Amino acid sequence: MPESPEVEALTRFLAREASGREICGVDVLEFRSVKTRSAPPAEIVGRTVTGAARHGKHVELLLGDKSLVVSLGRHGWIRWLGADSRGSDTEVPADAPPALASFHLSDDVALEVTDAGSWVSLGLFVVGSADEVPAIAKLGPDPAHDDFTRAQFDAALGGRRKQIKAILQEQESLAGIGNAYSDEILHIARQSPVTPAAALDPAATDRLFDATVSTVREAIEARGGVPIDQLKAQKVAAMRVHGRAGEACPVCGDTILDLTFSGTSAQYCPTCQNGGVPI
């Protein structure tokens, strides 16, 4: 699942490399990806990209008084085919995710939006403003932003009985965090993923806030300058516990365990996060 650090790196790349290029053509291969049927992607042909912005896990290409918003969903991404060595996929591997739509830009550059899932989770929106996309309009505060505050974090937790891993992934509460970084945050905060927010004491809440902000911002810094076709691999390589069930915890050496609950999964260290007891 794309999360804010990788989506931020992708957005910065697009802002740098796509800005100033004209959209010369659009090919939609999977019409289920188009969410604004009254404003299809073909409407943006002839427009010039003026920048890019990130909204949680969504990418916005700015096109004057219109925007193309790509909602990456669970398995979506944007592939850059062109001349820049820091992001190009000039030869797409045979096992690469299929393109759902292609946007042809000036100077023989193309953007392909892809989805690696077994069902289409990626969405394309042509809108006058990003907040016309329902999921963006509902986004909570983003821990990656400099103006993110402790008060916003406390409001997201709100003494709720919901498990904190679920709250970290809930886009209406905190924007941009998914399954992987929520595992990393909880490991750094030394907190069980199934603890209800209402059960956190002040010290645990302090640790969780600090871990949330530092994990997201340090990952954004680490992904800076990484070619966009290598961001997923860099993310996987950087994980401490996520995706590492059966391996040794890098802090205490205990075995990282896998947990499936409430329709999701988590990887955690029993010693660091649950007093040595498997959940």
Automatic annotation (TrEMBL):
Instruction: Read off the SMART domains from this record.
Output: Fapy_DNA_glyco (SM00898), H2TH (SM01232)
**Which reaction(s) does the protein catalyse, per the Swiss-Prot or TrEMBL entry?**
Hydrolysis of DNA containing ring-opened 7-methylguanine residues, releasing 2,6-diamino-4-hydroxy-5-(N-methyl)formamidopyrimidine
Superkingdom = Bacteria
State a single Pfam family of this protein: Fapy_DNA_glyco
What is its cofactor? Zn(2+)
Boundaries of each FPG-type domain copy? 240-274
Pinpoint the Formamidopyrimidine-DNA glycosylase catalytic domain residues: 2-94
Which UniProt keyword terms apply here?
A: DNA damage, DNA repair, DNA-binding, Glycosidase, Hydrolase, Lyase, Metal-binding, Multifunctional enzyme, Zinc, Zinc-finger
In which family does this protein belong, per the annotation?
Belongs to the FPG family.
Q: What name is this protein filed under? A: Fpg/Nei family DNA glycosylase
